[in-house]
Design goal:
Blueprint (H helix, E strand, L loop, with lengths): L1 H18 L8 E2 L16 E2 L13 E2 H8 L6 H8 L4 E3 L2 E2 L6 E2 L4 E4 L4 E7 L5 E5 L7 E11 L5 E5 L4 E3 L10 E5 L4 E6 L5 E5 L8 E8 L7 E5 L5 E5 L3 E6 L2 E2 L7
Length: 260
């Protein structure tokens, strides 16, 4: 009996791999898309799949959704392509022409024709939103430090949440700290230490989108540490240390926040 089952499974697998399309899958069903995109179930079968880029697939927001669903500058994908071909849409100061380019938290979206600047942010329940900012604030962004390593010849460098590699950082900068990165001069202006009393944004977990001040930090060996925070309404909640993004010192944020 086991031999017959094994033969059937072997035949099915051979048929599957024979007719399976090689390479990565370039499609994404709408029902499988992240809930933070806020796509309606009845809007179609497919959803835009983000291209490879600085942010992970389910932590990113495709550029087509910004122009079509958020700003309503286009009605369909063809109009989005026509807008992008004019080289007037910039992400972090660079022109982007790919409609499925993955933007992420703290990215700066600049539209030259309308002279508008937006920062990609989360609302209070963890959905992507565009926060309108001034021209002066669009010249920098906050980046979370993910890794710190030493490369060739002992030169230290750090890696941020948006895939940037910055050499010769300040020795005081550690993992989970946030740096203020100048998008024009491409250098670190300032940094904020991760610790008790800092203002943080939650970028993952069930409390995504909430903003609070760290009141307690617990380090665990082998697993991610636990952080307790308190928001403006004195509501306390806990989350993993990897879900915390430092955005300010004390009650003062380094970037302007949405109305919530």
């Amino acid at each position: 009996v086991y031999i017959k089952v094994y033969i059937k499974v072997y035949i099915c697998l051979n048929i599957y791999y024979k007719y399976m399309v090689p390479g990565i899958r370039k499609h994404l069903k709408r029902l499988k898309a992240p809930k933070k995109w806020m796509l309606s179930k009845l809007g179609g079968i497919w959803a835009p799949k983000p291209k490879s880029g600085p942010h992970k697939k389910f932590d990113s927001f495709p550029l087509i959704l910004i122009l079509r669903n958020k700003l309503h500058y286009a009605l369909n994908s063809r109009e989005v392509i026509q807008i992008l071909q004019k080289n007037e849409i910039k992400i972090d100061g660079k022109v982007r022409t790919e409609k499925n380019y993955p933007t992420g938290i703290m990215d700066v979206v600049t539209i030259d024709k309308t002279k508008e600047n937006f920062r990609v942010f989360y609302d209070k329940i963890g959905r992507f939103t565009l926060h309108r900012i001034h021209c002066k604030e669009s010249s920098f962004k906050l980046c979370k430090v993910q890794k710190i390593k030493k490369g060739q010849n002992g030169i230290s460098f750090l890696i941020t949440h948006d895939g940037r590699t910055i050499r010769f950082p300040d020795p005081l900068i550690k993992i989970n700290d946030s740096i203020v990165f100048d998008l024009i001069e491409k250098r670190i202006i300032d940094f904020v230490k991760f610790g008790i009393g800092t203002l943080c944004l939650i970028i993952g977990g069930s409390n995504i989108g909430k903003i609070g001040i760290i009141t307690f930090k617990e380090e665990n060996q082998g697993v991610s540490g636990i952080v307790k925070l308190k928001d403006v309404n004195d509501y306390e909640f806990s989350t993993k240390q990897s879900n915390v993004f430092v955005i300010g010192k004390g009650n003062k944020s380094l970037v302007s926040l949405p109305e919530h």
